[in-house]
Structures are given as C-alpha cells and as structure tokens.
C-alpha cells in the first residue's frame, strides 16, 4: 500500500503542470522587499510601518533612514515583485502549457506573495505581483488599470485607494473587453487583493489611512 502511495505521489510530482504550480507559489512567495530592506538598509519592514513586505512599506520605512535609498529599494521591490510571477508564466507559455494552466500559475503566484511559505503564510498585499501576472494575461486591461492607478496616485496620494480602484477597473475592463472568457481566475485574484487590503479599508473608513508623501 505504501509503495502504491509513493508511486502515485511521484507521478503527481512529475506532472509538468504540478511542477509549474509549485514553482509559481514558491517563486511568488519570495519576499523581495523584506530581503532588500534588510540587506541594504538594515531594517526589518515586517516590524515597522504597515508591516507589509511590499514596495510602499519599503519606501515608508527606509525613508526614515535614507530617503534616496528608500526610492531605489522601493522601485527595486516593485519591479521584482511584478516580475517574479511573470518569469514562471513566460516559461510555462514557451513550454506550451494551456491557457487554463497559465491562469492557475498566475493565481498561485499571487497567492505565494500574499501567503508566503517563507513567512509563515504571511505576506504582502499582492498589488505588484497581481499587476505583473495580469500584464501577461490581460495586457490591455492592465494598462487601463495602471492609468487609473497613476491618476489616483497623483491626486489622492493614498496608496490603498489608488491600488484598489485600479484593481476594480481591471476587473470591470476584463468583462467589457473579453465577455467571452472565463473570469473566475480574475475574480479570484481581485478577491485576494481586496482581502489583503481589509486593514487598509478599515483605516480608510476610520479616516486613519496614511497618505504617501
């Protein structure tokens, strides 16, 4: 019986789709913001600011020590968080995996960032990673969302509002531009991003959310 279980398990692990699913989760879970802030600024962003591992908190926390370095690390965190899911997606695309498998990889990359296996299933808010995988899967909708984000970032200057507004606009745009597609993966990613922003939403309601300056 144990031999049979072992063989089934090995067959499962040798499945190409499963290997990419695992890779998406593990790569997506890499906490670049935490690593960069510790390495180059000597600060632990998990114990400061919003305690998130994303670019906004890197910028906020490191800025207290070195404003110039904060911008560099914030940009690096944003880029790496956006790219990490795309790397797995691009590889899977060239291997010839199906669109359904690509969507599953996109979802798992976002889950990895938001519930990192390296941080006890804690993680970031998922915006950069979400936009990264969406840029690959739904480029036009993502461009629209980024325009919405840029307008919000310049005018409102509250990161959570601009991010969530952009995420919502991406979802709406996907239904308008691609009414024929199965929207479940997009809805699921949007749900995760909003779920991770619940503390921000509560602070917004209470008028306590901090502006980005």
TrEMBL record:
Reactions performed catalytically: an acyl phosphate + sn-glycerol 3-phosphate = a 1-acyl-sn-glycero-3-phosphate + phosphate
UniProt superkingdom: Bacteria
Predominant place of localization: membrane
One GO cellular component term noted in the UniProt record for this chain: plasma membrane
Biological process terms in GO annotation: phospholipid biosynthetic process
Location of the protein in the cell: Cell membrane
Pfam families: G3P_acyltransf
EC top class named in words: transferase
Transmembrane segments: 20-37, 73-94, 100-119, 131-151, 171-195
Record carries keyword Ribonucleoprotein: no
Record membrane topology: Multi-pass membrane protein
Keywords per UniProt: Acyltransferase, Cell membrane, Lipid biosynthesis, Lipid metabolism, Membrane, Phospholipid biosynthesis, Phospholipid metabolism, Transferase, Transmembrane, Transmembrane helix
EC number: 2.3.1.275
Transferase found in the keyword field: yes
Molecular function in Gene Ontology: acyl-phosphate glycerol-3-phosphate acyltransferase activity
Pathway(s) per entry: Lipid metabolism; phospholipid metabolism
InterPro entries from the UniProt entry: G3P_acylTferase_PlsY
Family: Belongs to the PlsY family.
Function: Catalyzes the transfer of an acyl group from acyl-phosphate (acyl-PO(4)) to glycerol-3-phosphate (G3P) to form lysophosphatidic acid (LPA). This enzyme utilizes acyl-phosphate as fatty acyl donor, but not acyl-CoA or acyl-ACP.
NCBIfam families (UniProt xref): glycerol-3-phosphate 1-O-acyltransferase PlsY
Subunit structure: Probably interacts with PlsX.
HAMAP family registered for this protein in UniProt: PlsY (MF_01043)
Name of this protein: Glycerol-3-phosphate acyltransferase
Gene: plsY
């Amino acid at each position: 019986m144990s031999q049979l279980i072992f063989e089934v398990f090995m067959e499962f692990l040798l499945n190409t789709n499963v290997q990419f699913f695992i890779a998406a989760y593990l790569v997506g879970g890499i906490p670049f913001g935490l690593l960069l802030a510790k390495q180059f600024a000597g600060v632990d962003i998990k114990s400061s600011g919003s305690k998130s591992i994303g670019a906004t908190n890197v910028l906020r926390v490191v800025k207290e020590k070195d404003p110039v370095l904060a911008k560099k690390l914030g940009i690096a965190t944003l880029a790496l968080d956006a790219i990490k899911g795309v790397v797995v997606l691009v590889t899977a695309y060239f291997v010839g995996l199906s669109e359904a498998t690509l969507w599953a990889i996109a979802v798992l990359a976002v889950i990895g960032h938001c519930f990192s296996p390296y941080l006890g299933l804690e993680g970031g808010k998922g915006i950069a990673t979400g936009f990264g995988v969406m840029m690959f899967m739904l480029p036009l909708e993502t461009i629209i969302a980024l325009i919405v984000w840029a307008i919000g970032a310049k005018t409102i200057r509250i990161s959570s509002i601009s991010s969530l507004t952009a995420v919502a606009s991406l979802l709406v745009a996907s239904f308008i531009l691609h009414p024929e597609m199965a929207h479940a993966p997009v809805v699921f990613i949007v749900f995760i991003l909003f779920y991770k922003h619940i503390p921000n939403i509560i602070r917004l309601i209470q008028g306590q959310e901090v502006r980005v300056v």
